[in-house]
What we know:
Blueprint: E1 2-6, H1 10-21, E2 25-29, H2 33-40, H3 51-60, E3 64-67, H4 70-73, E4 79-82, H5 97-109, E5 114-118, H6 126-140, E6 150-154, H7 164-169, E7 174-178, H8 181-190, E8 198-201, H9 203-234, H10 238-245, H11 267-280, H12 286-310, E9 317-321, H13 336-346, E10 350-354, H14 359-365, E11 371-372, H15 376-379, E12 385-388, H16 393-396, H17 400-406, E13 411-414, E14 430-432
Parallel strand pairs: 1-2, 1-4, 2-3, 4-5, 5-6, 7-8, 9-10, 9-12, 10-11, 12-13, 13-14
Antiparallel strand pairs: 6-7
Bound molecules: nicotinamide-adenine-dinucleotide.
Nicotinamide-adenine-dinucleotide binds next to α1 and α5.
Amino acid sequence: MNLVIIGTGYVGLVSGLGYARLGHRVVCVDRDVAKIAKLDFGEAPFFEPGLPELLREMQEAGRVVFTTDLASVINGADVIMIAVGTPAKPNGTVDLSAVFDVAEEIGKNLEHEAVVITKSTVPVGTNRKVLEIVRKAMTVAGRVDLVDLITVASVPEFLAEGTALQDFMKPSRIVIGVDDAVAATLIERLHDGISAPRVVTSIENAELGKYVANAFLATKISFINEIANIADLVGVDVTEIVRSIGLDPRIGSHFLRAGVGYGGSCFPKDVSALQQIAGQNGYNFKLLSAVTEVNNRQREIFVQRIEERLGNLKGRTLAVWGLSYKGGTDDIRESAAIDIVQRLFARGAEVVAYDPVAMVAAQKVLPENIEFAPTAVDATEGADALLVLTDWPEFREMSFETVVTHMLTPLIFDGRNFLADLHLKDLGFEYYGVGTR
Ligand SMILES: NC(=O)c1ccc[n+]([C@@H]2O[C@H](COP(=O)([O-])OP(=O)(O)OC[C@H]3O[C@@H](n4cnc5c(N)ncnc54)[C@H](O)[C@@H]3O)[C@@H](O)[C@H]2O)c1
């Protein structure tokens, strides 16, 4: 099939290359000229494991091209996919301006029958609005005879940054929200080669279901963080609790690692969007208010724990490992690590940070006085404490025998409970996890 994907970010680029790998001819469109130039040159615009290799392979095979000019490519497309950002507005509602701008562009330029798929995460009713905008723009452009040949569908994306390529190729499910049986079959064919259950459902179910999935995962994280806080108070170990409850198949162990809370470009905004959707329909979604509140409080509790141990943080040197919102990505949007560094800086601490790939992005948002170290070990030189804020696998591989000799005080605060099983106490470290003993 010929596929045009608009929006070449974490979702649009990964899925564009994924569809190319499935054998489709894909055009990726973005309004960001620098990003498209980079991609055209064969360079990945962000860090994602396996992305540069797949990009090269698909470019060499001639199955993917990049452009900023939607008008020049749209008329060869069987499927047009919208994958632009849907960030939160300051009041927590979803900013759909990019989605609607793209819908207008599609309508202005489309001269044939097509299926328009929204992959972006959008509130209930958005796809119908997209259809309305596309049809209106087509009518204005004098193509009223074609408006009934346009179908919309919601096919939300469930990939996670850091494992995005494998998530695309091996998802837990493919949700197809559509009214039209012909379009449903076409979308199923688009995914031929991916072995995963298909959930063909209404557009509205698909739209809301994406928010529900993220809100539920965020709820699990806040839930276990509250248990971790109680565990600290009563002197038990949250990781032991998870080890036992996780064996209950009704509960499972995924997303039950206590720590400094969730971040990223999806969970915070999607939790808040679902709350807004509920509110706009007259329902007070109390549980989600608590999920957000617990998540924000978790960062402050972590900082307070450091203060309890070290006293006033003014002038203290703190090594920070990890700035991205989780391991495997350079994405720092809503990163708990960035927030915690800012809180420490505001208390007068001298922060020396290291992240394998997110330092360039972090430098743009953190205060100038934050120091960045060339290696993880360098960051610990003369430190009063080491803070682990992102679960980068390489942090587990560090030579802690070397780290202990660099630090002023061999003190570790592990905000991800990521090193809990490494027996760091045996090496002379004082180790604090979140809810661990
Ligand atoms: N990042 C994730 O892990 C993830 C996972 C699942 C779903 N989602 C959802 O997918 C959507 C995209 O997320 P993302 O993280 O890929 O966003 P992103 O910010 O990485 O990328 C969005 C891209 O859209 C482009 N764009 C914006 N307006 C445009 C326009 N009018 N014309 C052309 N291009 C335009 C931007 O330049 C940018 O490159 C969001 O709705 C998000 O909630 C994200």
